[in-house]
Amino acid sequence: MLSGPEVPVLACDLDETLLRVNTFPAFVRFALRQSLVERDVVAWTTLVSAVIKRKLLRGSHVAFKATVHGVGRRLALTAVAEWADGMVQSHLNADVHRLVRSWRGDTVLVTAAPSIYADLIGAQVGFTLVQASDHRAGEYVENVHARKADCLKQVLTGPLQCAITDDPRLDGPLLALAVEPLIVDEAGAVNPYVGPVRA
Hints:
The structure is a single chain. This protein is an alpha/beta fold. It contains 8 helices and 7 strands; from the N terminus they run βαααααβαββαβαββ. The longest helix has 15 residues, at 23-37. 39% of the residues are buried. The protein starts with 8 loop residues before the first strand and ends in a 7-residue tail after the last strand. α1 packs antiparallel against α2.
């Protein structure tokens, strides 16, 4: 939970923002390897089948993400936590991390990544709250675009002071909420966002 209306809130995207990579394909590769390590044939065949459906048959991205999330739940939590730790150690954007760690208020990690590992990354970095893709009321809900901003609005008790992302097109609704919108450029530097904001 967030502290209250008097406490400034910073919202930060995960992929190519807090971390300088897209975590989802990396997690799929990890889950394939780890399911073999754990000798979980059901998890491995489920994931291979989902990859084939997605890549060759152009299946739904959300359905694919839900399957990956489900396979992730079958894996040893210690292994997933070790993977998440390795991602932070190897791919953390130092400028974004510095801003998050020095923020005098609440910080929210807002991401389309599955909560199975986003929650671990958020806890490791020290976010107040994590909002990620997850199962809600029996349906897999991807925390992306307008939904990301809507979920954040549900927990805000005052204005959103700052938002950081690498993608103003996808995260336009998030940037539109912020008093201080920031953008991470291709070199990983954090700058004020002065372009058009599409809510």
